[in-house]
């Protein structure tokens, strides 16, 4: 844009004398027109541009050496130096004027917003719940040049899924998607944050139960393995892979069942997700089986040999019948340190009527605790028949005599048993 200002004429005086210039120096041509170049310019904040100005005579001839004065209509937007250099200061429009001898021309300076585009990187951020990530925002001016030093305002459009801090740090809170927006001087861009569920806790250590077991050759035992987190909490993990450090002593199946094979020690190991726990197995020799208990067969009752001896007793209703003892046995276990042992006692009898027919058949069985007495006898405490008291003593090599008292006051009956 060229602005022109009219210049007044200065005609020569009329008449004689010293009118006009006479014989003096000719007056310089006045400035008729001022031009500027460029007439319009766009600058980003902080940029500079030198504006050129020419002064011309009325006939178009360029006039050199004429003083040009520079000014800005809006110095807050664009300043101009005495040499015509313009500096963009803020967004807006300013007219830069070059004036000489009352004539002027202007250059239109436009300072656009310093940011025309914002970019957020990465454009997509994948996180798991509980993880953090960082987004970075870059601003660019109208010409595509980076603009630095400007504040960035961060906003999460779905803060329930992911939040964002003032420095662009993103925190994933819940599974889903959230768009994170960065705004610089009113210009925005977004990034997509994809949040997946948290991974299962890592296996920190494996607890094997039992930690130690003692077995005898031929015995077996089941071990279990529990994967645990660093917080000692159970975690989901693949099944354990079991192994034995000494299969010759103890083997282990895929489900943790240990079989004792030979005397020695073996470590039973469970490996889950690359983490191993272990328990120990000590295998001892199998002791020899205890000897079979001695069974004493009933051979006499009240001194009479069986089964030939016949005895009479009163039957209900006053009927007299005969009782024939057919047999029996006495079987004590080995006595412990306290002088006690479990025992079994069995007696078999049949009752016949006078005509020889069988009235009934009885089987008496008793078991309980045998206790050694100070006189060398053994007191048999029945666990099945209250009121029956038995004592036993040696009746010779390989024999035992058992005395039975009925109700403490009843008849005493004595049985002789011989080891079979």
UniProtKB/TrEMBL annotation:
Gene3D superfamilies: 2.60.40.1080. SMART domains: BID_2 (SM00635). This is Uncharacterized protein YjdB. Residues 30-110, 114-194, 202-282 form the BIG2 domain. InterPro entries: Big_2 (IPR003343), Invasin/intimin_cell_adhesion (IPR008964), NUP210-like (IPR045197). It comes from the Bacteria. Residues 13-25 have a biased composition (Gly residues). Residues 7-34 are annotated as: Disordered.
């Amino acid at each position: 844009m060229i602005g022109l200002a009219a210049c007044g004429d200065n005609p020569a005086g009329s008449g004689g004398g010293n009118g006009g210039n006479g014989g003096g120096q000719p007056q310089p041509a006045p400035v008729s027109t001022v031009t500027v170049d460029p007439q319009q310019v766009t600058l980003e904040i902080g940029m500079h541009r030198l504006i050129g100005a020419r002064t011309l005579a009325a006939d178009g001839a360029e006039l050199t050496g004429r003083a040009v004065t520079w000014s800005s209509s809006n110095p807050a937007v664009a300043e101009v130096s005495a040499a015509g250099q313009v500096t963009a200061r803020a967004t807006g429009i300013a007219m830069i004027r070059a004036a000489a001898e009352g004539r002027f021309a202007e250059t239109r300076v436009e300072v656009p917003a310093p940011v025309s585009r914002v970019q957020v990187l990465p454009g997509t951020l994948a996180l798991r719940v509980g993880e953090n990530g960082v987004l970075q925002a870059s601003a660019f001016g109208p010409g595509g040049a980076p603009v630095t030093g400007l504040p960035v305002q961060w906003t999460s459009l779905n803060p329930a899924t992911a939040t964002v801090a003032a420095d662009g740090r993103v925190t994933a809170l819940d599974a889903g998607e959230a768009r994170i927006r960065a705004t610089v001087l009113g210009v925005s861009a977004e990034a997509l944050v994809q949040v997946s569920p948290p991974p299962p806790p890592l296996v920190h250590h494996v607890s094997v139960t039992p930690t130690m077991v003692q077995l005898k050759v031929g015995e077996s035992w089941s071990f279990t393995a529990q994967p645990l987190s660093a917080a000692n909490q159970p975690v989901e993990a693949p099944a354990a892979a079991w192994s034995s450090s000494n299969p010759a002593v103890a083997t282990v199946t895929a489900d943790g069942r240990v079989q004792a094979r030979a005397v020695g020690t073996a470590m039973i190991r469970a490996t889950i997700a690359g983490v191993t726990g272990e328990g120990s197995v000590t295998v001892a020799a199998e002791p020899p089986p205890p000897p079979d208990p001695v069974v004493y067969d009933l051979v006499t009752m009240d001194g009479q040999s069986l089964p030939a001896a016949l005895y009479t007793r009163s039957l209900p209703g006053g009927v007299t019948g005969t009782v024939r003892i057919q047999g029996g046995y006495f079987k004590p276990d080995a006595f412990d340190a306290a002088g006690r042992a479990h025992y079994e006692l069995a007696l078999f009898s049949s009752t016949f009527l006078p005509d020889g027919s069988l009235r009934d058949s009885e089987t008496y069985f008793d078991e309980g605790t045998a206790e050694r007495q100070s006189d060398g006898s053994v007191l048999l405490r029945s666990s099945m028949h209250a009121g029956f008291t038995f004592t036993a003593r040696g009746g010779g090599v390989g024999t035992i005599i058992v005395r039975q008292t009925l109700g403490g006051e009843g008849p005493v009956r004595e049985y002789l048993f011989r080891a079979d």
